[in-house]
Amino acid sequence: MVSKHNPSGNKKRSPLSIFAVIGLCCFFYILGAWQRSGFGKGDSIALEVTKQADCSIFTNLNFETHHNDVEIVEPSKPKAQVFKPCDVKYTDYTPCQEQDRAMKFPRDNMIYRERHCPPEEEKLHCLIPAPKGYMTPFEWPKSRDYVHYANVPHKSLTVEKAVQNWVQFKGNVFKFPGGGTMFPQGADAYIDELASVIPIADGSVRTALDTGCGVASWGAYMLKRNVLAMSFAPRDNHEAQVQFALERGVPAVIGVLGSINLPYPSRAFDMAQCSRCLIPWTANDGMYLMEVDRVLRPGGYWVLSGPPINWKTYYQVWKRTKEDLKAEQKKIEELAEQLCWEKKYEKGDIAIFRKKVNDKSCRRNSANMCKPRGSDDVWYKKMETCITPFPKVSSASEVAGGELKKFPARLFAVPPHISKGLVEGVSVESYQEDNKLWKKHVNAYKRINRLIGTARYRNVMDMNAGLGGFAAALESPKSWVMNVVPTIGKDTLGVIYERGLIGIYHDWCEGFSTYPRTYDLIHANGVFSLYQDKCSFEDILLEMDRILRPEGAVIFRDDVDVLNKVRKIAGGMRWDTKMNDHEDGPLVPEKILVAVKQYWVGGIKGNSTSSAE
């Protein structure tokens, strides 16, 4: 019966159970002490687990960003294509000026010497080889006077132009004495005569155009006067003349005055010259002279040396009649008056004209003026027989289009195109910020590659030049920059010329107007983002490889996803590449990809990569 004082019915614990609990506690205490003494197996197991979890064993832990090493994984696509070398017959391949294709076009107005690019099915998808024995060009200024024969193995000009002192072959090099057809005694003396009329020495003249340049000795010696000359000549029977110019470290492109506009903006050049360039200035009612006028800045100078100037002395040598030559010079002078040019000088073989600063005092008899259009919309546009009007001015002393400071102040002064609001989306403030940004970028490039800014990289190209900030930050007598403004982008080439720099319009879906191996350093800022929906990355990269010298360098600046695609293709082109973070750190999606082209030449069994001698 349950007691009312103990409703649960529990009985009192016995002394035996209490002793059992105390005994178990003592047992486990002793067991634990034994384990801790080091005689138990459990301790060694615990120690091993502790060792495996110890962070100190990872001695090579890298805290740097790995984002730049991550490639886009595309499992459905094959690995990067490996591009094979082209046949050695393509060593001097110029895709848009090839002789075989050129001969299919009319010879009228030099159409056959203009750009004629291959259709998609005829494009080469291989690497253009350097000639056997190729060597790194001499550094400037030695390169002005000497070129390795192995780099441009063509001797024809040494025979054709022997009397005119263009080029001489000596041992394993070509020597350039500085002569020309109209200055066989040297370019310096010729330029001294020009400088007696034209203010070359004080920085007023900075950009110049040499039409029919030969081996560009005039441009080479103008560099001594701090003048950048854009020289051009066709790829014709005067073999490799532009190639010689670029090998010497002088700006030049393959080009011709033909049926389409020159790829330069209006009012680009401070002076232009024709030294026996044999351009028919009076043909097509003066169309070629009108094109020179378009690209000549108000107040600029035009120099003509050679036919028909000094015809009384040379008419028999030129195998032309006095009457013919006299009529040609008279026609040129009449055209010059229509263009609002004044003849400032004529002595011996040289005549110098100056374009007036505006049209207030022009005497034009119902001249055929060009219709208003985007005056710089010139890519593949037909040249017209009309005169480009001056920009409007409010006084007789005002320089049409805006007055420029003398160089070098001109380099960072605000260009008239910007101060007048002619470039959409660019203000004075944003222009100045752009200059600061590019100084920062170029300093970063120099930390990555210490050769940037030295004479090792003489010929430099900026594939998407923008406002010219890269070239301005790099400005030095040791190098020059070809500023390319893509035809599908914002037109800023006028700004670049107003800064005292040179450049050209181009579409990177096509081959550039130059020979292979003509640039030491190529800068590609945003190029592949700009063209990613326009044409193949592969085509652009193969063209870059064609114009880049062996052991030359490329700097890409673009979004990381775009650069990973570029890097994958470049991996099959015999380029060594390295991805770098943006100057502001790894979290910025824009990256810098640096590439160096390996040295290799054609004509070696298997075309394997070989080291430079």
TrEMBL record:
<dbReference type="GO" id="GO:0005802">
    <property type="term" value="C:trans-Golgi network"/>
</dbReference>
<keyword id="KW-0489">Methyltransferase</keyword>
<keyword id="KW-0472">Membrane</keyword>
<keyword id="KW-0175">Coiled coil</keyword>
<keyword id="KW-0325">Glycoprotein</keyword>
<dbReference type="InterPro" id="IPR029063">
    <property type="entry name" value="SAM-dependent_MTases_sf"/>
</dbReference>
<feature type="coiled-coil region">
    <location>
        <begin position="315"/>
        <end position="342"/>
    </location>
</feature>
<dbReference type="InterPro" id="IPR004159">
    <property type="entry name" value="Put_SAM_MeTrfase"/>
</dbReference>
<protein>
    <recommendedName>
        <fullName>Methyltransferase</fullName>
        <ecNumber>2.1.1.-</ecNumber>
    </recommendedName>
</protein>
<dbReference type="GO" id="GO:0032259">
    <property type="term" value="P:methylation"/>
</dbReference>
<feature type="transmembrane region" description="Helical">
    <location>
        <begin position="16"/>
        <end position="34"/>
    </location>
</feature>
<keyword id="KW-1133">Transmembrane helix</keyword>
<dbReference type="GO" id="GO:0000139">
    <property type="term" value="C:Golgi membrane"/>
</dbReference>
<dbReference type="Pfam" id="PF03141">
    <property type="entry name" value="Methyltransf_29"/>
</dbReference>
<dbReference type="GO" id="GO:0005768">
    <property type="term" value="C:endosome"/>
</dbReference>
<keyword id="KW-0808">Transferase</keyword>
<dbReference type="GO" id="GO:0008168">
    <property type="term" value="F:methyltransferase activity"/>
</dbReference>
<keyword id="KW-0735">Signal-anchor</keyword>
<keyword id="KW-0333">Golgi apparatus</keyword>
<comment type="similarity">
    <text>Belongs to the methyltransferase superfamily.</text>
</comment>
<keyword id="KW-0812">Transmembrane</keyword>
